[in-house]
Amino acid sequence: MQYLMDHIVLNMIDEEKMIAFYTEVLLCTPERLEEYRAGEVPFPSVRLNEDTVIDLFPKTMWGNDAPNGQGHVNLNHFCIAVSKESWDELAERLAANAIDIVDGPDRRWGAHGVGTSIYFRDPEANLIEARYY
Question: Comparing C-alpha atoms, which of 52, 12, 6, 4 is closest to residue 28?
Fold first, then answer.
């Protein structure tokens, strides 16, 4: 099975420093930044390439959600994109291996617009999102 990295989500505490770093130092193109500042979307993103974005989650989106009482962690989750057929097969394998779906399926925004995704955890409690467009 092949996957494409769709997006990574970083939790942020100092929003302006994070946005400035990714847009002014790394020169990533901002996505939905004006909409975020206007309160129209819950988070901004920066584009790494045509297939991948980094979503920057403000504290209101992650709070104290870190697994195992670890407090603040930077990586919220990462997302892999697959075809609808591969997504269905993955969901079947997760069920066959008694791996719980933490959230979804639901429609969410990503590097290629809105897609359908599920969330699950790996054995180290890292949150993974799998989606199709």
Answer: 52
- At 49, the amino acid letter reads N
The helix or strand, by DSSP H or E, that contains position 109, with its residue range, turns out to be strand 103-110
Q: How far apart are CA 124 and CA 110, in angstroms?
A: 24
Supply the pTM of this predicted model. Answer: 0.74
Token look-up 């309160």 returns 39
Encoded tokens for 59: 């504290």
pLDDT digits over 87-105, tens only? 999 999 999 999 999 999 9
Strand partners, 75: 10
Q: What structural domains and CATH numbers belong to the chain?
A: 4-132 (3.10.180.10)
* DSSP three-state, residue 94: helix
Which of 119-127's residues contact partners 24+ apart within 8 Å by CB, and which partners?
A: 119/77, 120/94, 121/67, 125/67, 125/68, 126/75, 126/77, 126/78, 127/67, 127/76, 127/77, 127/78, 127/102
Cα–Cα distance for residue pair 112/38, rounded to 1 Å: 22
